[in-house]
Amino acid sequence: MRLTWRMSSRRRSVRSAAGLGLAAALALTGCAAPDEPEAASPGATATPTPTPTPTRTQTSTPTPTPTPVPETPRTVVSGLDAPWSMAVLGETVFVSERDSARILETSPAGDTRELVTVEGVVHSDEGGLLGLATDGDALYVYSTARSGNRVQRYALSGEPGSYRLGAPTSVIDGMPAGTHHNGGRIAFGPDGMLYIANGDTSDEPASQNPDSLAGKILRIGPDGSVPRDNPVAGSPVYSLGHRNVQGFAWATDGTMFASEFGRNYRDELNIIEPGGNYGWPYVEGTGGEGDGFIDPVQTWSTDAASPSGIAIVNDTILIANLRGEVLRAVPVADPSTSTDLSGEYGRLRDVVAGPDGTLFVLTNNTDGRGSPRDGDDRIVSLAVPRA
Predict the structure, then answer these.
(1) Which residue, 38, 95, 192, 244, could crosslink 261 as a Cys pair with Cβ 3.0–4.6 Å?
(2) How far apart are CA 382 and CA 360, in angstroms?
(3) Residue range 235-259: average pLDDT?
(4) Can you tell me the distance from the alpha carbon of 293 to that of 207, in angstroms, rounded to the nearest whole number?
């Protein structure tokens, strides 16, 4: 049976409360000089000065010294091979390598060990071991296999520095896969559901086909079940009309943002609405609202962007850019504007709020499209921008 979709041109308004600082001033008027007592009125009876009541001296509680945030920028880890994704659990950062199919465990101090080499991964240009996500109990892994793109769940045990993974169980498999445009990003939303980006896999019409999982953002339960409140009953599809989504994150009010690669004209930042149609392949960039598609809130020229992983910190959307080689900051309150924060490390694939209070940014210069520098690829720690 063919699934029917509603097509919305409504664009959600984004509001963000800005903090206001308040300062109080005390005005002193009509006071006598400190060394001269105020004179009594003629004929007035002097009022005796009351003896002050003794007060108990309070023992002060020492203020704990906050842990200092490390100086930035600094290299946390170097020597990575085509890294693709990071997932943070407490003090641990898990890192995927696309071509080697390795998952690494690392600490803010840079201690790194190989956790596992994922079996059955097929690397073909943009396919391989891609996104990682964790719910604290397990590590969820997106990869390309011979049967298509898939997400597997690995139970986590042990402690930081010595984590162990259980045997993989399938969460979803058989998703369309291709040499290019495999999407690959996975993340848990504030609703506890797992969101999955699968690209159009170079089959452009599939993005508009509601029966295909290509060119879609999917929403499923951690066990792979389809939530009852998904846009279409029984379907994992959350939104359609995408070319190659590679990043998403949520603002504090629950607004979902996603970054998306254009073909050769405009890259996009979108606000994702359940059941929304984002126009690909009929529309690239803006101009689709009249046809019932949802326009992006911001676009960039493809030679200045290629937006991949994103994170939201301090009401700021931070976007790692590959071809543009910059970390871009977009205010949640006005997502039509942006600022380039850093352009010193080459291609950037992912960004997360690091476990030490800084930003962790993942470079991507060894994937065959960049110009590797000494020590590439690496995780770089950068200062968190203040809203």
Answers:
(1) 244
(2) 7
(3) 98
(4) 13
Q: Is residue 46 packed enough to be buried (19+ CB in 10 Å), middle (13-18) or exposed (0-12)?
A: exposed
- Neighbouring C-beta atoms of residue 237, cutoff 10 Å: 23
Length of the chain: 387
Residue 11, C-beta contacts closer than 8 angstroms, at least 6 positions apart: 271, 289, 294, 295, 297
> Encoding tokens for residue 47?
């009022």
The answer to whether 353 and 313 are in contact (CB under 8 A) is yes
| Rounded distance between C-alpha atoms, residue 216 and residue 200, angstroms | 8
DSSP code of residue 69: P
Q: Average pLDDT in the 39-53 region?
A: 41
Please tell me the distance from the alpha carbon of residue 267 to that of residue 137, in angstroms, as a whole number.
35
3-state secondary structure of 134: strand
Neighbours of 153 (CB within 10 A): 23
Strand order of the β-sheet with 348-353 is 74-77, 379-382, 359-363, 348-353
Cis ω on the peptide bond leading into residue 315 (within 30° of 0)? Answer: no
Q: How far apart are CA 205 and CA 190, in angstroms?
A: 31
Give strand pairing partners of 132.
141
φ, ψ for residue 291 (rounded to 5)?
Answer: -100, 10
More confident residue, 333 or 26: 333
- In angstroms, rounded to a whole number, what is the distance separating the alpha carbons of residues 320 and 325? 8
Rounded average pLDDT over 40-46: 38
Query: Comparing C-alpha atoms, which of 308, 312, 285 is closest to residue 370?
Result: 308
pLDDT of residue 7: 42
Q: How many helices (H) and strands (E) does the chain have?
A: 0, 25
Give the model's pLDDT for residue 124.
87
Cβ atoms 332, 316 nearer than 8 A:
yes
